[in-house]
Every structure is written in structure tokens, then in C-alpha cells.
Amino acid sequence: MIAALADRYGLTEPAIGQLESLLEYVAEQPSAPTAVRERGAIVRDHLADSLVALELPVIRTAATLADLGSGAGFPGLPLAIALAHSTVSLVESNGRKCRFIAGAIAACELLNAEVANARAEEWRDGLQRCDVVVARALAPLAVVAEYAAPLLRLGGTLVVWRGRRDPADEAAARRAARELGLELCDPIPVTPYAGAANRHLQPLVKIAATPDRFPRRPGVARKRPLGGAAAQPHSI
């Protein structure tokens, strides 16, 4: 299964070994913060779903990448494995999940990944430093855009994993993007594994400086979302 991913994305032998280590770590660790524990499902729902972002050139060329709300380390860990030239920060506010991610980094012997135990709004080390920010199943588009915009350098890109397209969510994100210095691009249909349906990657590009009033205080983006967005998470 991992061999098929390696062929699809041109992964190196060391990367294949690290993906196998990650697979074993997630499957065997009782503390893994994911309900997906069967090996085939891990490959499909976590590894393949993360690596599909490699279809975007902006992902492959990123020197600095941040994964917001990383959870169990996806998509950040597989991308760090595939992108040995990149520095990948996995930003997660839950301490237990951070400990799991740190263990996974050690198990995979990843030298280009680090875990940041912080909320996105409070991660000062990342301000205006990231070429790419990624997020999967984190929040409505407008909320994720607000989290990411202050972290992106000018010209950087936010890439959000989405399921079925939601015109209202996209309209709210487009309105929010105007306030944040971002531009909402056309969503990109993807098929991370056979049988996957209604999957998209949504890019937003930073075209202007984000106003100094961002980031707002922790929690405000969800409670009072820009663009009239709904304040519930939007998962795939």
C-alpha cells in the first residue's frame, strides 16, 4: 500500500521507510488520538489523504510549512516525510496530542519536523514566516483563513482540505479573504485513493499584507467569524 503511494509521488527509499514507521506508530500506540487504527484505513484515510497535496507544485516547493490543528499529525507528518528539504511545524494546542506527535517524530527519525504546543492565534514564532500553511478538518474556511493569514509570508499559500463544496462557506471565505490580504482561488478536485469522492484542496494566496489587528484573541475567530461564516468545524 505504501509502495503504491511511493510510486504515485516519486518518494525516496528513506521516505518509504519513514512512512512505514509512522504507520506502525499510529497502529500500535494506545495513546494515538485517532479512531483510525487498522493499517489499511490508516494508509487510506491518513497517509494517502495527506500526501495528495503533493499534486500541488506550491506544496512541493515550500521551504517552510505549518500544519494548523495537527491532531494526530496529519497532514503534517506525511508531508514532512515526503518533503525532506522543507521545515515543517505541527501546531497543536492539545498537550496530549503534542506528546503523541513528538513521539511520532522520534519514531520516524524526522529531522525537519517540530511540534508547537500553541493555538494558531498565539504561535508568534510563525508570524509571516510560512511559505505554506495547511489545515485538514479544522474549521470553516473563513476561520481557517484568519488563523493562517498572519503566519503566511507575502505570496504564501494556505491549502485547506475540503469535502463536498459548500457555496455559502466559500462565499464567506471570499469576503473574509478580502479583509485578510488573501485571495480565494478555484478549489482543486483530488482523489487521494480509489473510491474517494467529493474531495478538494482549497488554496488561498496571500496577495497583500494582513492588517495589524490580526490575529485576534484566541477564540474570537470562531465566535465572531469574518465574512458571516458559520462557527462549526467543517470536516471531510
Topology:
Layout: H1 2-9, H2 13-28, H3 39-51, H4 57-60, E1 64-68, H5 76-82, E2 87-92, H6 95-107, E3 113-117, E4 130-136, H7 141-148, E5 152-162, H8 167-180, E6 182-184, E7 188-189, E8 200-206, H9 220-223
Parallel strand pairs: 1-2, 1-4, 2-3, 4-5
Antiparallel strand pairs: 5-8, 6-8, 7-8
| N→C terminal distance | 22 Å
The residue fraction in helices comes out at: 25-40%
Identify the overall geometry: globular
What would you report as the Rg, rounded to the nearest angstrom?
Answer: 17 Å
Summarize the biggest pleated sheet: 8 strands, mixed
Q: Topology as H/E string?
A: HHHHEHEHEEHEHEEEH
What are the segments in which pLDDT stays under 50 over at least 5 consecutive residues? 231-236
Count of helical stretches: 9
Provide the number of structural domains: 1
Can you tell me about this structure?
Helices cover 37% and strands 19% of the residues. The chain has helices at residues 2-9, 13-28, 39-51, 57-60, 76-82, 95-107, 141-148, 167-180, 220-223, and strands spanning 64-68, 87-92, 113-117, 130-136, 152-162, 182-184, 188-189, 200-206. Strands 1, 2, 3, 4, 5, 6, 7 and 8 form an eight-stranded mixed beta sheet that branches. Strand 1 (64-68), helix 5 and strand 2 form a beta-alpha-beta unit. Helix 2 runs antiparallel to helix 5 (76-82), helix 3 (39-51) crosses helix 5 and helix 7 runs parallel beside helix 8 (167-180). 45% of the residues are buried. Mean pLDDT is 95; it is low at 231-236.
